[in-house]
Amino acid sequence: MATKHILIVPGDGIGQEVTAVGKKVLDKIAAKFGHTFTYDEALIGHVAIEATGVPLPDESLEKMRKSDAVLFGAVGHPKYDNDPSAKVRPEQGLLKMRKELGLYANLRPIKLFDELLGASSIKPEILKGADILFFRELTGDIYFGEKGRKNNGDTAYDIAEYSRYEVERIARKAFEAARTRKKKLCSVDKANVIETSRLWREVIQQVALEYPDVEVEHQFVDATAMLLIKDPRRFDVVVTANLFGDILTDEASQIAGSMGMLASASIGDGTGVYEPIHGSAHDITGKGVANPLASVLSAALLLDISFGMKTESEAVINAVDKVLKDGYRSRDIADATTAPDKILGTDAMGEQVLLHI
Amino acid sequence: MATKHILIVPGDGIGQEVTAVGKKVLDKIAAKFGHTFTYDEALIGHVAIEATGVPLPDESLEKMRKSDAVLFGAVGHPKYDNDPSAKVRPEQGLLKMRKELGLYANLRPIKLFDELLGASSIKPEILKGADILFFRELTGDIYFGEKGRKNNGDTAYDIAEYSRYEVERIARKAFEAARTRKKKLCSVDKANVIETSRLWREVIQQVALEYPDVEVEHQFVDATAMLLIKDPRRFDVVVTANLFGDILTDEASQIAGSMGMLASASIGDGTGVYEPIHGSAHDITGKGVANPLASVLSAALLLDISFGMKTESEAVINAVDKVLKDGYRSRDIADATTAPDKILGTDAMGEQVLLHI
Ligand SMILES: CC(C)[C@H](C(=O)O)[C@@H](O)C(=O)O
Ligand SMILES: CC(C)[C@H](C(=O)O)[C@@H](O)C(=O)O
Hints:
The structure is a homodimer.
Chain A: E1 3-11, H1 15-33, E2 36-41, H2 46-52, H3 58-66, E3 69-74, H4 78-81, H5 90-100, E4 105-111, H6 124-127, E5 131-137, E6 147-150, E7 155-163, H7 164-179, E8 184-189, H8 195-208, E9 215-220, H9 221-230, E10 237-240, H10 242-252, E11 263-267, E12 272-276, H11 293-305, H12 310-325, H13 346-355
Parallel strand pairs in A: 1-2, 1-3, 3-12, 5-10, 8-9, 8-10
Antiparallel strand pairs in A: 4-5, 4-11, 6-7, 11-12
One 3-isopropylmalic acid sits at the interface of chains B and A.
Enzyme class (chains A, B): oxidoreductase
InterPro entries (chains A, B): IsoCit/isopropylmalate_DH_CS, IsoPropMal-DH-like_dom, Isopropylmalate_DH
Function (chains A, B): Catalyzes the oxidation of 3-carboxy-2-hydroxy-4-methylpentanoate (3-isopropylmalate) to 3-carboxy-4-methyl-2-oxopentanoate. The product decarboxylates to 4-methyl-2 oxopentanoate.
């Protein structure tokens, strides 16, 4: 029976709707297992810009630092996307949060619920049994290097950078995880062209010496982008840089049937942050149709990783499994065989999950 | 009846085997249509390093400049891949060729031959009718910016750079192509994080004003990586930067059933270069099993784009179609339904194509 303080940071778009469901799930877990969870809320992204002028107010950061874990939604707004000269952007809040909290490791487990085998655009016989754990480096690379313009604004540049230390610490996390799984690690880079990738590969090779029981493979990112679709079962743990991880994990969401099913954990020096890998999805915001399961599964990751509550975490995952087995689907994972009365909106889907905890 | 000089540049690994087939196809076309094609050969990549110490000898470059078109194979060797500190690499030859010949536009048509609908890991009902033309920028971005080490080698950096001019010229090529197709252009960037992408988006928006008949969509690269698999038919022409194009086109090869089927054209200021998008594939080199069709289809692109020989180009494509309809498959595109005696090696597959020209 533990007492924990959880910060809810819904952010933009459907972040609000899905995080509300995630929070209810945490509440139910607390009640059922006799824990005391207290909550607070904080602003980030477009909603923070509207309210305070900045995408991550100091107050939000302070609250994050003081909490035991953060349940996060999404950031982003089309308004900025179509204005390349915008100086303040919702995404800056997200990047600042990652940097300030030292969230250097982003874990993205890609696993297909059996019930959703048919929901993917990939053939079931290719998918069945696929189970990948991505480690995406999250506080370095071209995301955080110097960027700007020269020649009167006619030339733009971005600097990608990695230090040995940055690669080492994420490598160790990935190797440790591989040890508890199938003992296979695939490191993805573009070492045939890029210098940061050459350092990356060097460090992985060195760290590998400490884990002789783990089988290591190095792949070029273009090959990985192809192999993830061609043969997803060949992967166990994948470790890669920030930008490549961004691209490959979104691609890999198709292995799980839908982005709406995928949770992620960002961990590092202090408070961990848990969030869906999907974005703010303004096209469906406010319609009550967003799939809340990625936020629910983020709550499960939070319980497991930040609170060490394995049983509680499994109770959440089993509830999701049960809801899917009962045939309930949100719109994004429904298909031609789904009965119309089994297609549920955000809240109704959440209620079904709560029923089974 | 034209006279043309074609330079054959096989490069490394299976490049040798597949380019030999591509050349035979060009020969047959010349004979059949009464053209005179003369040939020469040049070194690049690992084989060039072995023979001369450098990955692209001046002599090769000179021959390329003087030829009417180049039929290229592949470069690369595992020896360098696993040695992050190698100073001379096969890939440097490829990059130098692209830069020196001003090959700023890499066209990668992704189209599925009907006969191969079953060969992909993606469901046939998702694929049927997909037809995408990628324009990958090929002489800028992080590929060609300054790169190096600092802090005693403990920090690596790569600079990504784009100028307005570089984006404009590839944008125009892509818009022109969209006009001859479904009039839809998707520009892919990461403008929510990267400055070069913001410039990219700015320029695409400006050039779009000259093409009001073309419908433009901007996507973030992570979303595109996902949507290519989820719904490939939503794309017509896609234009993107060098690194994103590298990743996305390899991924998109799964739409065409296999990398072994995909050809590309690199064009720009002078001689055009035509090559498979697959690599040197040292794991199958020398075994005579490589699929030669990507090189054959590269020859078709060469005839069309560099020589303006539409009929000749179609004759090649139709021959490939016929061979597939006859049920012949190389190993990479064979499946459980392929009769063992229909699975052909590199040369035998080439012979079948020649029969139908
Ligand atoms: C919103 C964006 C800045 C972010 C990223 O690129 O990291 C998102 O795509 C993600 O993957 O969390
Ligand atoms: C071999 C490598 C340098 C090259 C690239 O990244 O451009 C290859 O992957 C390609 O796509 O032609």
